[in-house]
User: What shape does this take?
Amino acid sequence: MYTIGQVSEMFNLPISTLRYYDKEGLFPGIERQSGIRKFSERELEALRVIECLKKSGLEIKDIKQFMAWCVEGASTYPNRKKLFETRKAIVEAEMVKLQKTLDMLKFKCWYYETAIRDGNEERLNEMAPDRFPKEIQELYDNAHS
Amino acid sequence: MYTIGQVSEMFNLPISTLRYYDKEGLFPGIERQSGIRKFSERELEALRVIECLKKSGLEIKDIKQFMAWCVEGASTYPNRKKLFETRKAIVEAEMVKLQKTLDMLKFKCWYYETAIRDGNEERLNEMAPDRFPKEIQELYDNAHS
DNA sequence: CATTGACATGAAGTTAGGTTTAGGTGTTAC
DNA sequence: GTAACACCTAAACCTAACTTCATGTCAATG
Assistant: This one.
């Protein structure tokens, strides 16, 4: 059993955030001893799932729904499975987009290295994309597709 | 040359967003014909960079700074190069985190598939992580590291 | 020549996800 | 017995990035 301060340290989250999550119903049935929250292993696992679902782009109110399903029991296994499958697909799509962003950034790094070497962008701006070095062209193509 | 409506279609962005970006100084020196914005290839490339930098987590005010550097000329190449290198490092770190999130989601998908087959979570909750199937254990380990 | 549709403006409104503030309780240390 | 801490609440506040609103201009169409 942990206090809110200990959990705050463990997860590197402000105490105010943990209280906010609790107020939003993200720790249904959390125990209290004379008003003070007692975080058990159940709440720590909830917090791991909260961070994961948040990172997947899920809103707090929908995370609350998930936590309610957990309380409801075995009848909601299909809902919970479907939720994770949807989030998985969304994050996979997000990874593809982020890879494009990364390729654009890498291209721009090369672009400015070259501009610095040349002293200007003239040669670069007159160069057709198919005359970039092969690996740079791949970055450019992925970033612009 | 394109109107704001055409650019809105091309980039799938609301017109209000394009006007907001202009107001924030993200299209320095955009041309106007009797009050109406004329988007040239320069503004389209700016927009591509805006989307890329935004996705990398950069704030509008810092994107504005970048656009100001572009106007300033060759003396700011080092600043611009450094900006892209920093964003690149940030996005690479983000990709690692997102992969962990994805592994957690995949683990949870397996977890609920198994719970549905078992009809309950009892066996799962008593199972030590090192008794999960090998590929599941890898997901679990990466997600919890 | 009036209506439609695309453009323009400044100012106010919206939203999510917290954070801060003001005031209070309870336990341990000196 | 008082000072320092860690905890508590409700309510107000904050921020970024848009979005909506009220109002107006202008060109082409029926």
